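The authors assume throughout that readers already know how a fold can be written as C-alpha cells. What matters is that the chain and its backbone geometry are given together, residue for residue. A single example would do more here than another paragraph of explanation. For illustration, here is how one protein appears when written out as sequence plus C-alpha cells.
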Amino acid sequence: MASTASELMWIKQLLADLNKEHEAPMKMFCDNQTARHIAANHLFHERTKHIEVDCHFIREKIQLKQIETRFVKSEDQLADIFTKGLSMKACENISCKLGLYDIYNPNLRGSVEK
C-alpha cells in the first residue's frame, strides 16, 4: 500500500505541475481488510508495533484526505493478473473484465458467409 500511495502522490504532483489540480481524495483499492483498518485507525498501534514507517505514511495520507482506501474482493482484484499466477478460469475472468482478447485465436462467429 505504501508503494502505491507513493505512486499516487507522485501522479498528483505531476498533475499539479501540469496545472491540472486534483482536489478529491485518490481512491486506492485493497483486498486486505486488516491492512486497511491498520492504516486508517491509530488505535491498532499497540497491537502492531512491528509495522514500519510505511503504515504511518499511509495513515497520514488518509487523515489528510489525500488518499481514500476502498475494499475490493480478491476475486475482483484486476491487478492480480499482472502480479500473481492465476488459474486459467481466474485469468480468463479478469482478461474479460479488462477487455483483453487473444488476437491469435480468431472468432469467426458472424464473419463467415454462407
